[in-house]
Specification:
Order of helices and strands: EEHHEHEEHHEHEEEHH
Structural class: alpha/beta
Largest sheet: 6 strands, mixed
Helix content: 25-40%
Strand content: 15-25%
Oligomer: single chain
Number of strands: 9
Shape: globular
CATH class: Alpha Beta
Distance between the termini: 53 Å
Radius of gyration: 18 Å
Length: 251
């Protein structure tokens, strides 16, 4: 991976920017996964400028949002199975080669701290923390907590610096109230000058004020407003009349 650094403001830290590697079009076959995913292919053609604050990637399963978050996180130097730059652990390598095809731009003076919260691999991350105690949470018994409690403990112990945070479906373990607590954490990170890239299926989380939303699908990636998201419209229709959906599924 090639790193490029951009001049930053003294008053506000510049944010990381993801861009396609300039050699990619000639070196990566278009039929090689994950370049076959429309959203990934678009990023490889055009790059992806991450706005300051929070950017949400929203889309159906298989649309490429988690692949993009993973690729950016690994290109930033984070563990593909979750954690920070220092938490390099692996149970079974499954990450795509996308991180090798991206380069990151980061402003001078921007924090180097980063964290990748990946819902599906947090169990192995907790085991890593048990075997490699950290000064950030030396006595937190993550494995003795419920799934949601352990996520909240991670938020308390790891989301405390204005760095770059990648989250892949963090709502998977969280209740409604806990999702609201996560939104407060993200807002605090933004207020401190940090940046967040998050893949989500949650209409609650995606409603975070001031966040940029990118809808991912067969069209690639497109900016979207919260009220226009297919995700929001489907949930709104279902909650308004569950029977309309269930009679087709169950009857």
């Amino acid at each position: 991976m090639e790193s490029i650094w951009k001049a930053g403001s003294r008053r506000r830290r510049e944010q990381p920017v993801v861009a396609a590697h300039p050699e990619l079009p000639a070196s990566i076959p278009a039929d090689r996964w994950p370049a076959t995913i429309p959203a990934v292919a678009q990023v490889l053609r055009e790059g992806l400028d991450l706005a300051p604050g929070v950017t949400f990637l929203v889309g159906e399963n298989g649309s490429g949002k988690s692949t993009l978050v993973e690729g950016v996180a690994v290109a930033y130097g984070l563990s593909p199975e979750g954690g920070s730059r220092q938490a390099m652990h692996s149970t079974r390598p499954t990450e795509s080669p996308l991180s090798e095809w991206l380069r990151l731009q980061r402003g001078v003076g921007a924090s180097r701290w980063g964290f990748f919260l990946r819902a599906e691999t947090m169990h192995s991350f907790y085991t890593y923390l048990e075997e490699n105690p950290s000064t950030r949470s030396p006595d937190v018994p993550f494995h003795e907590m419920s799934h949601g409690e352990s996520f909240l403990a991670i938020l308390d112990s790891r989301f405390d610096d204005p760095g770059f945070y990648c989250l892949d479906e963090p709502e998977a373990a969280l209740s409604f109230q806990s999702t609201l607590a996560l939104m407060a954490v993200l807002q605090r990170i933004v207020g401190d000058g940090g940046q967040v890239l998050c893949a989500t299926h949650s209409p609650v989380l995606a409603a975070l004020p001031g966040a940029r939303i990118l809808e991912v699908g067969e069209w690639g990636i497109r900016p979207a407003e919260w009220g226009d998201l297919e995700l929001v419209n489907h949930w709104r229709s279902y909650l308004d009349s569950p029977d309309r959906y269930l009679r087709h599924l169950l009857g």
